[in-house]
Every structure is written in structure tokens, then in C-alpha cells.
Predict the 3D structure of the following.
Amino acid sequence: MFDVIKTLSGLVQAKKSQTGKTVTAAKPPAGREPQKPAEPRHVDTQATLRVAEAQAIELIVEAKDQAFRIRREAEEEVRRKTGEVERREGLVQDRERRLEESEQRIRKQLEEVEGLHKQALEKLQHISHMTTDEAKTSMLGQLREDLKEDMAKMMREEQTQAQEEAEIKAKEILVDAMRHGATEYVPEYTVSIIKITDEDMKGRIIGKEGRNIRAFETATGVDVDLDEEGVIRLSCFDPVRREIARVALERLLRDGRVQPGRIEEIIEQVKKEIERIMFEEGQKLCHAIGVYNLPAPLVALLGRFKYRFSYGQNMIAHTLEETKIGIALAQEVGADVNVVRLGCLLHDIGKIITDKEGSHVDLGVEMLKKYGIPQKVIDCVAQHHEDTPFTSIESTLVYIADAISGSRPGARYENYEEYIKRLTDLEAIAKVHKGVTEAFAFQAGREIRVVVDPGEVDDATATLMAREIKKEVEEKLTFPGQIKISVIRELRATEIAK
């Protein structure tokens, strides 16, 4: 706007500078005939100047009006904005004030609530005669009682599902183990028994003043029992000596010449034959699982497994079965098959070393070091009963294969004293629980039935009791296979009519 005013002022000044001047014609150029001069024109500059000044004034006035209007609008806008800011600042301050008042009110209410809580807690403790911890324990106990039924229901559902899945998985494992571990060797249990048809033969075996039987027992190192009719029993801790005595006695009975000299001669012959048979059996065992070039003394020791039993399980059968299972597992998981093969084959070799003291693990490790067996194989032997921590996957697989072969149903048996102890321990574990009236162990300790008082034990508690007994049995007892625990709650109402 100010630029327009400035421009108009410049025009007015230019018009004034031209006032009073006369317009003259220009001279014609040389060589031309001069034209008749035109009559001079007079311009009314004063009138033009006045018009321009009037227009400029109008423009100036209009510009000033517009500038004044713009300034007024700007001032009104500033006043409006300032009022809005002041109003908002007031709102913010009012809100802050209300918030502060609310915070103070809330803090005061919290203090009042805390004080009421403390008073109520003190009153409750005074009324109930219990501390906070005691009340908490009581409430948790009550909650446990309330949830007992739901817990028992969930446990039954989980157990049912787990049993279904376990049955399917167990069948797969058993089928696979039997497929890889099936053996043709039939284990035999027992002391050696020889049947005779003629009781007079017992007299010939005894000999004059018992010299024949003394010579036989001295040469073989076995005890001869002739008390039972129709049989002769040979008992000895060493199965090899017992086998030598059995074969020698059968030959003597067939030969008929039972005398000290002949007894010693036959026994020497049988010893050589048994040594040869054991070496051949060791070779058969090694070749059956693909082991060759094993040192001859170790092959001979392995052959002694033919007459060696562990809990009634023949050692050749156990070793062959375990090695097949171990090889199958090693192939499945990508372990060193040859290390597992030798580890399974030699893991129990210390059991037939009878001339030294020590566990069969230590004796076996010592023997294998003597013949330069690789350290990985020795580690498998040293760790197959977890005497030392596992150092490789191969030693773990040897342990697993040994456990499968030894713990499968029917593989081994235990003696009478162990059965009695298991039964007693099982019944003792069950009887300590509240509400139990009787506990009976069945099937050589593979099942226990617990009878509870229905007045003291409800259905939910019976389910929980079965689980608690299961945990205690697993923690306190060592047993092959599994033990079934049944808690029986039966309510009987009996009346007598007179």
C-alpha cells in the first residue's frame, strides 16, 4: 500500500515539472525541403495535474483506510488470541489445582483405609486368636480342601491320558527292543542236577569210607548232595567248576569205574574240554555281533559267560541281547557303533574274574587296560552302572542297553529274602498314612492294596493318597519293573436282626 502512495506522489511531481513548457517542431534534415510548420498545441497541464492529485488523494485515503482496517483486525486478533491463551492458562491452573486437591484427598483416604485395615486385622487376630501367618495357613488349608475334588478329577484325567499314551509308546519300544535284541540262546537257572535210575550208584559214588566222594569234591571243588531220591545235586559258587563236576560225574556213571584215580583222570579231561568249549562260545559270541581280532584271553573270558548267571539271567544271553539293542540305538542316534559294540560286549567281563577283590566294574576296567582296549570303550565299561559321570553318548547308550536287557519282564529273578523285604517295606510305607486300616502287598511286591477308613478318607483324599504313596515308593525303594498301588475305600453298613 505504501508503494502505491509513493508511486502516485512521483507522478504528481513529474506533472508539475512540465508546467509552462512549449512544444516546438524539430528542424528538418539537410537537403530536404522544409515543411510548413504545424501550429503549436497548448495542453492544459493544470487540469491534468489537478485530476492526478485528486486521484492520488483518493488512493491515499483509500490506502490509509485499508491500512487502518488491517491494523484494527490484527489488533483484534491479537486481543482474541491473548484472551484465549489466558483462558487456557486459567483452565490449566484450575485443573492442576483440582488434581492436587484430588491427590491430597486420595492420600488421606488411603491413610484412612490403611488404618481401618490395621484395626480390622487386629480385631480379627484378637477374635480368632491367630496370627497373620497362622490365618494364611488355615486359609490355604481350607482352599486345598475346597479344590481337592477338582485336583483329584484332573489327576484322574491326566493319568488316563498318560496311560493311553504310555501303552502305545511302550508297545513300540518293546517291539523294537525285541526285534533288535532277540536271541536264540536259552538261559538256564539252578544248581546242577543229575538224575539217576539206580540208587545203588550213590553207594559207588560214596565209595569205601567215603573216599570216592571226598576225592570227587576235592578235585572239583563242589558239594555233592545225595539225600534226595533219584537225583544227585551239585552246588558250587563257581558255575564253571559246577559244570566240570556235572560232566565228569555223568561220564563216571556211564563208565561205571568210580575210584579216586579214575575220578581225577576224568576231571582233567573234562577241564580241558570245558576250556575249549568256553573259548568256542566266546568266539561265537564275538562273531555273532561282528567283533573280530579280540585278544584270545578276553575271548576265553567271554566264553565263561556260558556258565555264568546274573539274577538268573545267563550272561551270554544278556550280553548278546544288550549288544544288539545298543547297536540299534547307536545307529538311530548317529553314535560310534563300534565303540558301543565293544562297550556292550565287554561291560560285564569283570564278573568272571574271581581271583581278585573288587567290584566287577573296577576289575573289568583293569583287565581291559591290560590288553590295550581303546579308552572310549573302557569309559563305557567304567560308567555302565553310573559309578562315574557319563563322558560320551556311547557310554550312555551302553548304560541304557544294559538297563533294558536286565529290567525287561522275565529277564531276571530275585531271591526269597528280597521279596520278603520288598513286601514289608511296601506295607510299612502305606500304613503310616492317616486313615489307612490295612495294607497288603501282592505278586512278590509288584502290587499293593491299601484299605482306608471311609469315615476319615473321602474319594478325593484317596486319589491323592495313592499318588503320595507312589512318590514315596519311588524315592525309598529300588525295584525292577513297576508297582501298582490301589487305594480301596469301601463303606459297609452292617446290622444284626435279633
The chain has five domains: 1-16+45-132, 149-181, 192-279, 289-407, 418-489. The chain has a mean pLDDT of 78.
